[in-house]
Amino acid sequence: MGNEDDTEVMESEGSFMRPYLLTGGRTRSDAGELAVEAMVAVSAGSTKPDQKELAQIYTLCETPNSIAEISAKCSMPLGVARVLVADLWGAGTLEVLETTRSDDIAIVRRLLDGIRNR
Fold first, then answer.
1. Which of its termini does the chain have fewer beta carbons within 10 Å around, N or C?
2. CATH number of the domain bearing residue 43
3. CA separation for the pair 18, 102 (Å, rounded)
4. Total of domains in the chain
């Protein structure tokens, strides 16, 4: 059996091996590591990828989403989402948006006040 046949068998048997196939066995992207809370969006002038999962991520990122949100909305493990998003980022398809620095004490205080007031 060749690689293509192996992939089809694994896909038809269920999603147990699917994450491995999506990333080619990688746990990290060559483009680098992104935090799960990193907000990403489609880069201007980029085109939608052909691969189903990458196209799904691209469509979600037409409005900014965090990697954690992408993982949940695509029903894929967080580690897989991190690798695929980082691949798209490395290819220039997605851009990482600047987020608020967590060392800004005023923002942290407002966040805590908001949680307390719920």
1. C
2. 1.10.10.10
3. 35
4. 1
The model carries a pTM of 0.69
Looking up tokens 């196209």 gives 55
**Structural domain range at position 61:** 28-116
Residues in the chain, pLDDT under 70: 1-18, 99-103
